[in-house]
Amino acid sequence: MSEQIPKLRVLSQCISPASKTVGHHRHREPAERPGYTKSERSVGESFKNLFNSAEGKRIIIATFSSNIHRIQQIIDQAIIHDRKVAISGRSMQNVIAN
Fold first, then answer.
1. Residue 4, pLDDT score
2. pLDDT tens for residues 39-57?
3. pTM, two decimal places
4. Distance of CA 49 to CAs 25, 42, 52, Å?
5. Could you give the CA distance from residue 32 to residue 57 in angstroms, rounded to a whole number?
6. Angle 41-66-54 (CA atoms, 0-180°, nearest 5)?
7. Tell me, what's the pLDDT at 79?
8. What is the 3-class SS of the chain, one letter each residue?
9. 47-59 residues labelled b (16+ CB within 10 A) or e (exposed)
10. What is the model's pLDDT at position 31?
11. What is the pLDDT, as a whole number, of residue 8?
12. 68-80 and 90-97 helices cross at what angle (nearest 10)?
């Protein structure tokens, strides 16, 4: 972990201060019923809406590397909107490479 800290410092210097504060750009929708999450189909629709509304803006999405379907949804939208995708983390790199 300590060998990654210099890389993170360099990365954080490359990101503008406005993009570090993404709280007001966070796209969150409440669960329809307490204790349950929305379906993957509705998550896909949320990604479509997010990409459609973020023209000219950086989009940062965090997800688990084990959620391969969600990663595919993100990449599909990035392709549709001619966006680049950057990944971080060894597990995520392994999933994307395979």
1. 56
2. 777 888 999 999 999 999 9
3. 0.61
4. 13, 10, 5
5. 29
6. 50
7. 95
8. CCCCHHHHHHHHHHCCHHHHCCHHHCCCCCCCCCCCCCCHHHHHHHHHHHHHHCCCCCCCCCCCCCCHHHHHHHHHHHHHCCCCCCCCCHHHHHHHHC
9. beebbeeeeeeeb
10. 53
11. 55
12. 70
58: tokens are 């950086």
The single-letter code of the amino acid at 3 is E
Quick check: 61 and 74 in contact, CB under 8 A? yes
Judged against a pLDDT cut of 90, whether residue 10 lies above it is answered with: no
Phi, psi dihedrals of residue 81, rounded to the nearest 5° = -100, 15
Residue identified by tokens 């993009």 is 19
Residues 63 and 70 sit within 8 Å (Cβ to Cβ): yes
Q: How does pLDDT run across 17-31, given as a tens digit for each residue?
A: 444 433 444 455 555
